[in-house]
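Ticket #4471: structure export looks truncated?
Reporter: QA, pipeline team
Priority: medium

Steps to reproduce: submit the single chain below to the structure queue and open the exported record.
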Amino acid sequence: MAKYYDVHPDNPQPRTIAQVADSVRSGALIAYPTDSCYALGCRLGSRDGIERIRTIRKLDDRHHFTLVCQDFAQLGQFVRVDNDVFRTIKASTPGSYTFILPATKEVPRMLQHPKKKTVGVRIPDHVVTQALLTELGEPLLSSTLLLPDEDEPMTQGWEIKDRLDHVLDGVVDSGDCGTEPTTVIDFSGGEAEIVRRGAGDTTRFE
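Actual output as written to the record:
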């Protein structure tokens, strides 16, 4: 049964955020809000968490997982970014973007695309997510909470708790956060390739 965390959207309660972070460190798989839509999240090195996300979403091994990072300094530990790409990403973060980039050796192989050796990274513009990342001190391994055969992600914490109670360890609810996933930009080939148009404006990448 998933534990339900009711978090204030503008002033997240430190004690509650600490409880969520502790659960993630202990191996929990959670659903949490972002600046685009709800996501599934677990600790970076959690093999069990990865497999559970794959099972819930019915993902194959070509799916790009995303490392949700607190800031650019943290992001830079996990992906290789040249100067031109650095400036473009810097100007777009925090925000509703996921960037696909070559992974560094800090990223476990099981998270990397099997052929490209890439991984997704993002820096969200969301008070509750940022509070959790600050408390956690490391990225959250994440994937959009979009269930198989459904067109839109769920937007309400209580609905997620109701439907996924048996497969999650926790649900963080800070109110409705929308249904549009991030815009995905692939920089692994050096040039910006728009893989998915979502919540983030694509103008600067075209």
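Status: closed, not a bug. The export was complete when the record was re-opened. Leaving a note from the reviewer for reference: The CA atoms of residues 101 and 183 lie 14 Å apart.
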